[in-house]
Structure prediction request, 313 residues.
Amino acid sequence: MSNAIVMTGYGPPEVLKWAAVPLPEPGEGQIRIKVKAAGISPTDLVMRAGYLKDAIPLPPDAVLGFEAAGIVDAAGPGVTGTSPGDAVTALLFGLGGYAEYAVASIWARKPESVSWLDAAALPSSAEAAAGVLRQLDVTSGETLLLFGGGGSVGIIATQLAVAAGVNVISAVGERDEALARELGATPVRYGAGVAGRVRALGPVDAVFDAAGTGVLADAVALAGGPGRVITLSDPAAAGFGVTLSQPTPGRAPGALDQTIALWPRAGSACARTSPFPCSRPPKPTASWRPAPSTSALSSPSTSPGGTAAASRS
Prediction:
C-alpha cells in the first residue's frame, strides 16, 4: 500500500482526503515514480468541482494530477534508457499525480538544474504548446499570432516557435510585453482593437488561441479563415469552424524532451510566479520558463501536512 490524496466526491478542496491506496504497478512501456512534486492545473480544479463530471466522469476515490516529477522506482516491460533512481518529469494522461507513487507512460529526464516544483509544473503546458504548434504546422519564416502569450502554454509555445524560425506576434497584457520581447516575440496589446494592431504588423499565417475565450472572431479574420486557427479551450470553436485541440498521447510525442531542452534559455523567468486560488476553481474554459501562475504540490512522506501549492493559469 501507499498513500494519495483522493477525491471523496465532487466539491470544494475539503473533498480531498489523504488515504491509503494500492501501490500502482507499471505495465508495458511504463515507469513508476516516487513523487517529489505534482502539478496542479486548472483542469484539475474544474474536475474536482464537478464542472466536467458529465464529460469526464471520475471513479470513486479518484486521484487527480496530470503531471508530476520524481524518482523512478520501477520500470515495466519494454522500458529502455530509464532505470530506477533516475529523476524524471512525467505527463499522466491517466491522472494519479497527487500521490506518493504514480505510473507514467510519457516522461523525460529532469536536469539537475531544474527544481522538482518547476519540473512538475511543466508537462501539461509543454504538451499543449508543442501539440498545437505541431497541428498548425507552422514553419520557419511564417508568422504565428499567439493569444495568451503571457500564460504558461503561451510562454512555452513562444520559445518553441521562435527556436523553429517562426515569427511570433504575442497578444498580451501590458505587464507581459517585456516578457514577450525577451522571448523573441513581437508583443501587441490584448483587448479591444487588437485586430487592427496585428494588421499593422503584417499578414498572419496561423493563430494559436491559448487565451481561453472571446478571440476567435478576430483570429479567423486575421488568418483569412478557420483552417489554421486552433484553440485550446474556447467552447465556441465549432461555431467558427475552428479546431478545439484536445490532449491525447499522440498530439505531441517528444514534447517533454523538446521543452526541457530549452530550460537554460528560459530559466531566468522561472521566478515570476503567483498563487492560484485553489479553493475557487475557474469555470470550465479549459484552459522556460514555467510561466506565471505555475504550480506544484510537494509530496509528503506520510501525511499531507507538508504539502505546498501554487498553480498554473
